Amino acid sequence: MAGFRAVLFDLDGTLLDTALDFQWIIDEMLSARGHDPVNPSQFRQHVSEGARAMVSAAFGLPTHSAETDRLLDEFLTRYGNNPAARSQLFDGLDQLLSWLDAESIPWGIVTNKPERFSRAILETLDLSARCASLVCPEHVSRVKPDPEPLLRACRELGLEAGDTLYIGDHRRDIEAGQRAGMRTIACGYGYIPDHEDPAEWRSTHLVQDAQALTRLLKSLYLEFRA
């Protein structure tokens, strides 16, 4: 079947552009220590690897060290106080979500981001009531690239994995979707390091911007309804 009955999104770098909040906090921490701000384009490449990787890269520290741990604690405290000061939907995705809502197509989020941050962001952006399923690390025993979080979302939606699309900007997103038995869409506009090529992830589809994603979903849905 070419169509779909639900759509699941990764959060950071796929549905939401959250890098500006991370960069703002990191720059404040650097400035307080007399350092220059980060290079935005280089910094964005570390976002999908998580907070520890961002702190490590920004301060030029090993991934695991006592100083990295201290800076990570400060970063998470600052972020927890206001996780959505600058975050926003990628350009064009508000219209996509509105189309999904109008067609009564449920959509949800499967993320490796902790629930306390994810829920706060969705509430700030008025997306909580629209999101039919939110699966975070606290809800499962294994996170992506394991398929468990995606399969949990399907159960919450009352759908089979084959009826659902998963959209992400990282190799682990595509791997998790494939292992769950879903069709997948790789987002070339996300937080992708220079050494990664989304075309090599073997996703079902690949898009380079949110507008192309919208066109693809509408085309697949029309095929399903024809």
Please describe the topology of this protein.
Layout: E1 6-9, E2 16-17, H1 19-32, H2 40-44, H3 51-59, H4 66-81, E3 88-89, H5 93-102, E4 107-110, H6 115-124, E5 133-135, H7 148-157, E6 164-168, H8 171-180, E7 183-187, E8 205-207, H9 210-225
Parallel strand pairs: 1-4, 1-6, 4-5, 6-7, 7-8
Antiparallel strand pairs: 2-3
Helix pairs in contact: 1-4, 3-4
Keywords:
8 strands, 9 helices, Rossmann fold, six-stranded parallel sheet, two-stranded antiparallel sheet, 2 domains, globular, 226 residues, 12% strand, alpha/beta
Structure summarized in a few sentences:
The chain has 226 residues and is α/β, with parallel strands linked by helices. Helix content is 44%, strand content 12%.
Q: What is the domain total for the residues? A: 2
Q: How helix-rich are the residues, as a percent range?
A: 40-55%
Number of strands: 8
Please indicate the percent range of residues in DSSP E strands (runs of 2 or more). 5-15%
Task: Return the string of H and E elements.
Answer: EEHHHHEHEHEHEHEEH
Low-confidence stretches: none
Characterise the protein shown here.
- This protein is α/β, with parallel strands linked by helices and 226 residues long.
- It folds into two domains: 6-17 and 87-225, Rossmann fold (3-Layer(aba) Sandwich), CATH 3.40.50; 19-81.
- Helices cover 44% and strands 12% of the residues.
- The protein has nine helices and eight strands.
- Strands 5-4-1-6-7-8 form a six-stranded parallel β-sheet, with helices on both faces. A two-stranded antiparallel ribbon has the order 2-3.
- Strand 6, helix 8 (171-180) and strand 7 (183-187) form a beta-alpha-beta unit.
- The protein starts with 5 loop residues before the first strand and ends with a helix.
